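Table S4 entry, TRAP transporter large permease protein.
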Amino acid sequence: MIGSVLIGLFLLALLAGMPLATGLGVASIAVLAMAGFDQLAVPTNIYAGIAKYPLLAIPMFILAGMIFERSGVAIRLVRFVTAIVGEWTGSLAVVAVLVSMLLGGISGSGPADAAAVAAVMLPSMIARGYPKGFSAGLIAASGSTAIVIPPSVAFIVYSVMVPAATVPALFAAGLFPGIVAALCLLVPAIVISRKYGFGRDYKAARPPLGKSFIEAIWGLLAPVIILGGLRTGIFTPTEAAVVAVAYGIFVGMVVYRSISFRGLFRVLVEAGELSAVVLMIIGIASVFAWAGNTLGIFDAAAKALVGLHSSEWLMLLSINLLLLAAGMFLDAISIFLILLPLLVPIAVAMGWDLVWFGVMMTINLAIGQFTPPMAISLMITSRIAGIGMEETFKWVIWLVLAMGAGLTLMIVFPQLALWLPGKLGYL
């Protein structure tokens, strides 16, 4: 009964148009009051939810992503990748996917990655005959891989909620599946471009490889420094986020001189505002999770779901459909905070590796970032392209299927995710 009240109040709050954090808070406070708990449990759990050392990395990676976005790294990476790929029918579509994958190794955020690539790539793609809907959809899809390719803000939140899965293990586990997911997007990108002749009639000089490489080297070094420092133990994941910020400021203000002191101040303000929103959701969702766990709601629901499905594959299918549906409306971090208290007991009961399970969830939620109707990354790229989201629908469906194929590969072959962390000694 009380579990139905918790979930029902939360859903009603969302349907009423309340912000996510408010809906979580209203439902949690009401249920705790019904159960006779002292309301001091609310501020105590909000503080406990955000007073965790690994969460310090979230505002830092958000800031690092914004700094690299404003520093001009994206345009230099585009020139370098274009010099490698060359100019042919559909080449810019390939460049968009590959640049998004490279930037994903810096920002850790799908929307930030999509915004940075869209600002640089959309004008040139449209000028060469690529439809706005196709271009916006492709960039949103490829940008979503940023939450799978390390460093990933989503993995940090997952690690905080599932201590058995460490951040280094998740970062290592996400590398190959993230690359596979991005490469799967190349198939529809190339096939569609060649079918409709996107870019066929446009001839442009190929950027010189050597010069473009020298210009892009500072951006290419960023993921090497971050992941290399983590692997060698020079710094922790939280410290890596600080190193990324310092490196980004150095590149933007000293090397490229594209960020002024005034510009840096604006970036700090914007990153602070976005970080405050994320951490507020995390803090209030901690109350929601604590209420559900303390009252035994999530454990009872998990046992009921396990009892419904005797087949492991049916359970996996049900969970992935649930995540895909949730990903259409909410961002990855919010879904982790809401659903992990329910799904982790199921994963444990099924005997699934929690690192593999975290990667599977994250890829699924990456798909949700560009699957209508809400699709936060698609919303951003459509706005930059100056079109309605409906113009992307006929193209996005093929991209959803392509990344779904990448997710299926990771589910069928778990070693895609588990081989590297096992090799590195993280498992």
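The chain has one domain: 54-282+296-423.
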